[in-house]
Write the structure tokens for this entry.
Amino acid sequence: MDKCFFAVDLGATSGRTIIGGINNGKIELKELTRFPNNLIEINGHYYWDIYALYFEIIKGLKEAKNNNITITSIGIDTWGVDFVCVADDNSISQPIAYRDPHTFEAMEDYLANVKTRDQVYNITGIQFLNFNSIFQLHAMKKAGNVALKNAKKILFIPDALSYMLTGEMVCEYTIASTAQLLDPRTKQLDPSLLESVGLSQDKFGRMVNPGDFIGNLRPEVQKETGLGAIPVVAVAGHDTGSAVAAVPAANENFAYLSSGTWSLMGIETKNAIINEVSYDRNFTNEGGIEGTTRFLKNICGMWIYERCRKEWTNAPKSHTELQAEAMKQPAFQSIINPDDPMFANPVNMVDAIQEYCKKTGQYVPKSYAEICRIIFESLALRYRQVYEYLEEMAEFPIAVLHIIGGGSLNAYLNQFTANSCGVKVLAGPQEGTALGNIMVQAKAAGEVKDLWEMRRVIANSLELKEFTPTDREEWDKAYERYLKIIEN
């Protein structure tokens, strides 16, 4: 590789540092370090340890130095909505985590007493989730949070880590778009929404876009790592933004499904879609690469399956063995709505599934294999519902559904999704977020010219698995059952 790019990819449970670049028209990745991202509980609140994450980034940079890797640039992506408060003395507070209970009633309180649901959605086009930054800020303001009171600047998580590396304060567009404070038409934070939580524009760093230069490593970081004045480049700071940038699509006529603990299904559009239909269906408009909008909806994803796996004591530990047993069970014995509140965070997920089936007058599954098949079939039916919404609202015909992320390895669910939605499915890449991060840096360095060349390089670098629809009549009947069940 002529140029090597250092990617920091942080999720809500773990993080890693990766080196990558383009070699003979193909992208190559190598993981340098992997580490946990732990929640810290103190006095009834949950925090992220921003200093531990910074330490792990420094550790990764040292590892690159020890391996004699010449780094061209550094890019950081993380989960959305969370932020740090930087005080007048430039000290950084530990960020409250989006899972903290202080937001449980914050959204309802804000919408009842500050601005209406219509007003907020018409400005932002962002779906309503209680942990969105606007509601976190409202909860902190109402509680008299000292860090917020003393904040000179508010930085989203990737921007905070970039600041710790460079000393430069920025507000990256894609991560800011998750806050429910940004107007996707102006691509700026909205003054009226900022004022509603007691803030103003000057509390945030300068707005930057994916590919923009943030700053060089501070002298102290250069000394500690043994590296030079390496530039830190803004990538799509929101990990889903980086993942969607890595969708190996040939043209714009595609939908994507980022499949993991959460599933995010959407399309890429030139402009935000904000209307009564998108409002009623709680779709979101988040920032993408090159000024695009990621029009999408959050779906429960593999959360239910992973929770059940932890509860099953007699099930095979191997995904392959467990899922093979599930496929031996009769199809469509029962159907659940994966996004029903019953499955948000029950004490026992297996009990919740059985209770749901009982309440809806369906067969109550007993074995792990039966439950596993029900989860996969129900997810595919929920995907169809959202996919049909997208077909209705998209300004172009959707010809293919790209599944990316860890869930792209689940061949059974991929086939079920193709069957349910009636569309060709292309699965891969698994490492979408890291690929998107690296490719934005490559574009900033002049290695590729635009988003579509990025995608051509990625498509040329891996073998996609194709799934074509089968058993359409059987899935159509199941979908009719699904709609009746969720309506009741």
